[in-house]
């Protein structure tokens, strides 16, 4: 198989750099008279995927995960991560320089309160923290008897000798045939929401929202087609997009003509001050608006109205064209997955296949669709104990031969008509009874979500337990959410909807989410089964309230060899058999003869 085009197996940093870089940062902090510094995994837009020029956490610590913090003091330094990365972080950082801390046990603020000495000055970059995050930091620092100091420049940048240049990819238009709604119509909806909120303007700080509103895309970060820029949208009149004009060609200029003005990024501060000076509150997105933006609004004599960017919810509810585009993307992606899994079934038993070879093959099958724009995230391909790391990313140093047991592959594609994300756990040779038990319990949780019927107004938090019940009955659980929102040729992780204990936003028809319960046995194996699902109205005979349910969008077989049928109910078996019949019906006519034979075998009724 050909090598990858959209992902690399080289780790840009190594644990060995942690100690020297930590010392350089401490020396710089001492020069500034600062006793500590907070390093989030974020850029000024608070994004999950950040350009290399802004990946300060990875540069400092060598931790490569998509979320986390470092807190550096003169005599202590911690890297704090969530449940996805508690195993990974220990493998990546210099444990003599940094202490790994699980956020499930200790928050960033609690760690600061426990370790900052009275009178200590803790610095932070106001461009890298939201207003709420800053307030929490201030409270923790105050409780420790210290002082939180907003720095005018980031001290890491001062010691990062070979910092990459910031991104400057061309802006491209997302055609109406994929977007489904003109930018002018979207702007009118947002302005209506702003008028109802009695604010004068909106600072669009989330590049995903900017991309959706103006029907534009870019490539400023890997795997998510974003333009990292700001826009100002007044309640009346055109928005202004602040982006370098050299990034806009004639076609995009025509696309934006009459819809949005374009101005240089250097004029953003003055434009924000001018809007603030008009007196009406300026809406600043609570989720992505940096503290520095609030400070700029107040310095201009205005008031920042901290709240939800109305675009976020509008973007989450996919229109009819976006829904159909997602279905098309998933059929296309299902063909690539079927070809990959059929290939894997032939190659893995030989004992020579590696994790990297599997990743390369899967990307190659996706590229052969002739529609792949990028992968939607670096493929997670874990054999044996690597599968127990939910967000494991194979490198040349960690590459493992796939041996008998369990192999987990979590991957996705970016297509102009939709974004995909799918996980399959497959058997290689003989598996244990315990593996079958845990796999079947994860499958039961997956089916419970897929078949859920719930009243309008229900949130993801209310459904999350359904995915865990069978695991709880066996005395176990998983530490990540059951599902996240997914964009339309945008981020594979999109809010505000989620299936999680923290998912308080009501689900609405048109929202797309993942359904991915799992089980992880540290040092041994891991299991996850993921499909994407679309919220849709659901009629219930004799029902008294409007009800909702899910349409499953993904079409890829679930490994029958890992299922213990004795643990499943008749209804669960019926769902699985019906799902496999749908997979065969949708994907079978689109694959080659060899793959079709494999597909027919793997989609047989469970008890046949």
Q: Level of helix content?
A: 25-40%
Judging by the overall fold, what is the CATH architecture of the largest domain? Answer: Alpha-Beta Complex
Rough shape? globular
Give the tally of β-strands. 28
Pfam family, one: Peptidase_M24
Protein name: Xaa-Pro aminopeptidase
Keywords: Aminopeptidase, Hydrolase, Metal-binding, Protease
GO molecular function: metal ion binding; metalloaminopeptidase activity
Question: How would you summarize this macromolecular structure in one to three sentences?
Answer:
The protein is an alpha+beta fold and 608 residues long. 34% of the residues lie in helices and 19% in strands.
Walk me through the structure:
It holds the Pfam family Peptidase_M24. The protein has 608 residues and is of the alpha+beta class. The protein has 3 domains: 15-159, Creatinase/prolidase N-terminal domain (Creatine Amidinohydrolase, Chain A, domain 1); 172-314, Creatinase/prolidase N-terminal domain (Creatine Amidinohydrolase, Chain A, domain 1); 320-596, Alpha-Beta Complex (Creatine Amidinohydrolase). The strands form 8 sheets. Strands 4-3-2-1-5-6 form a 6-stranded mixed sheet, sandwiched between helices. Helix 4 runs parallel beside helix 5, helix 14 crosses helix 15 and helix 14 (320-347) packs across helix 20 (593-602). The longest helix is centred in the middle third of the chain and has 28 residues, at 320-347. The chain is globular.
């Amino acid at each position: 198989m050909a090598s990858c085009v959209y992902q690399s197996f080289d780790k840009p940093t190594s644990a060995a750099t942690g100690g020297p870089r930590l010392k350089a940062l401490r020396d710089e902090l001492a020069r500034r008279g600062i006793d500590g510094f907070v390093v989030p995994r974020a850029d000024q837009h608070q994004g999950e995927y950040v350009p290399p020029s802004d990946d300060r956490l990875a540069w400092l610590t060598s931790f490569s995960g998509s979320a986390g913090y470092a807190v550096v003091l003169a005599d202590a330094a911690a890297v704090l991560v969530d449940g996805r990365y508690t195993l990974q972080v220990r493998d990546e950082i210099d444990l003599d320089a940094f202490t790994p801390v699980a956020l499930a046990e200790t928050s960033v603020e609690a760690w600061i309160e426990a370790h900052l000495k009275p009178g200590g000055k803790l610095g932070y970059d106001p461009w890298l923290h939201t207003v709420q995050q800053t307030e929490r930091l201030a409270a923790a620092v105050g409780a420790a008897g210290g002082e939180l100091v907003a720095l005018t420049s980031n001290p890491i940048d001062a010691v990062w000798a070979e910092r990459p240049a910031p991104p400057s990819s061309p802006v491209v238009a997302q055609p109406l045939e994929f977007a489904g709604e003109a930018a002018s119509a979207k702007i009118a909806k947002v302005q209506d929401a702003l008028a109802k909120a009695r604010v004068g303007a909106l600072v669009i700080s989330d590049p995903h929202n900017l991309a959706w509103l103006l029907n534009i895309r870019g490539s400023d970060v890997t795997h998510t087609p974003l333009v990292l820029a700001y826009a100002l949208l007044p309640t009346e009149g055109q928005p202004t997009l602040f982006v370098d004009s050299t990034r806009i060609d004639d076609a995009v200029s025509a696309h934006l003509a009459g819809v949005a003005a374009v101005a240089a990024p250097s004029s953003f501060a003055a434009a924000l001050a001018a809007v603030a000076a008009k007196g009406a509150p300026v809406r600043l997105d609570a989720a992505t608006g940096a503290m520095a933006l609030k400070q700029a609004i107040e310095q201009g004599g205005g008031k920042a109205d901290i709240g939800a960017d109305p675009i976020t919810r509008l973007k989450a509810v996919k229109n009819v064209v976006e829904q159909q585009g997602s279905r098309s993307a998933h059929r296309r992606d299902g063909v690539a997955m079927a070809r990959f899994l059929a290939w894997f079934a032939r190659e893995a038993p030989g004992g020579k296949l590696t994790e990297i070879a599997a990743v390369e093959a899967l990307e190659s099958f996706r590229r052969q669709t002739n529609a792949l724009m990028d992968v939607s995230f670096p493929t997670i391909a874990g054999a044996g104990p690597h599968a127990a790391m939910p967000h494991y990313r194979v490198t040349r140093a960690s590459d493992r031969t796939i041996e008998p047991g369990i192999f987990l592959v979590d991957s996705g594609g970016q297509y102009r008509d939709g974004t995909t994300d799918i996980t399959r756990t497959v058997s290689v040779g003989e598996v244990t009874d315990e593996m079958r038990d845990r796999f079947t319990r994860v499958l039961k949780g997956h089916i419970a979500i897929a078949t859920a019927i719930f009243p309008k107004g229900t949130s993801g938090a209310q459904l999350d337990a359904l995915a865990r019940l069978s695991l709880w009955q066996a005395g176990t659980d998983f530490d990540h959410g059951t599902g996240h929102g997914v964009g339309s040729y945008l981020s594979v992780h999109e809010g505000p909807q989620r299936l999680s204990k923290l998912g308080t936003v009501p689900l609405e028809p048109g929202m797309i989410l993942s359904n991915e319960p799992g089980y992880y046995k540290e040092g041994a194996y891991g299991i996850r089964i993921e499909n994407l699902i679309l919220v849709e109205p659901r009629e219930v005979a004799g029902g008294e309230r409007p009800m909702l349910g899910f349409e499953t969008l993904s079409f890829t077989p679930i490994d029958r060899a890992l299922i213990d049928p004795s643990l499943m109910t008749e209804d669960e078996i019926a769902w699985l058999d019906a799902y496999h019949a749908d997979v065969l019906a949708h994907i079978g006519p689109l694959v080659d003869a060899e793959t079709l034979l494999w597909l027919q075998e793997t989609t047989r009724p469970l008890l046949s």
